[in-house]
Amino acid sequence: MKKKCVESNNSDARNINDVLYYKLLVNIFMALNVVELATVSKVCKTWRKARSDPKLWHKLDLSVLCNKPFNVPRMLGSWKYSSERLTKVLRGILAQSEVRHIRCFVFNYYAYLKDEHLLLVARRTPNLKMLVLPAICNLSKEAIEHAISLWVGLESITITRMINHKNIFPAIGKYCKGITGLKFTIGFEMDHARALIQHTPNLKFLSLQSIIVSFRALHSVLENLKHLEIVNLCHSLIIDKHDTSNRPLLHHLRKILTCQNNNGCVICKHRMEGQNYLTKKALYEAVNKLYDHE
């Protein structure tokens, strides 16, 4: 009887040690990128099991492609004439990834994205919640709609300069009813505002950080997107003469994010030198007037 108790205690101790070792491995592996995770899986069964933990695969960030062994140049439109190479790399990375756990997919910012690349990722990541597109794309209307139709659970997307909003927003409105967050990395104009109002009525978060923003377009979304809660205007340059006589009702808006210092933001000062944009002080005054709904 005593021997059985000792064996049971030893077994429990081993189980506890195994659990702790597994958790330790997962915590260490969280610091690795997708290429490094593929490497550690070859060490042993325990490591392979740990690298498959869902925590490690919530976000797949392809910024790693700028490093060895891929060496994507840090130039916009890189690999434009190496489409097959990018396809091969994407297939290899997705094959080594736990795709069923991926919730956020970040394309390499510099890589030139084509239809086949977008569709390859869309078919392999059906549970995606967040998508960040690269700076330069050459995507057809058909490819965009097909990809978006596979991401029905999409909640957030980053729109880049080469994505035709006339193609992507109707697809989002048709298939992705749960979209609540959008980030623009291009100038925000009235056409974009109209598209948001028409196709993303449930939007809660809008980021217009570090881009040129039409005040008329901003005014329009603030007035018409009734579920909008947070707008990020940090380092943005506001154009158009603003008219605050017709203020939108902002009782639903929780926060407008702007630079912490309206006169001392180095980034904004540098960007506005010699430009005919609203000064940061004028932006603050305009935003404060819009936000004053008492």
TrEMBL record:
It comes from Arachis hypogaea. InterPro entries: F-box-like_dom_sf, F-box_dom, LRR_dom_sf. SUPFAM superfamilies: F-box domain (SSF81383), RNI-like (SSF52047). The keyword Transmembrane helix applies. It comes from the Eukaryota. This is F-box domain-containing protein. Residues 24-62 form the F-box domain. Keywords: Membrane, Transmembrane, Transmembrane helix. Coiled coil: none annotated. The chain crosses the membrane at residues 20-41.
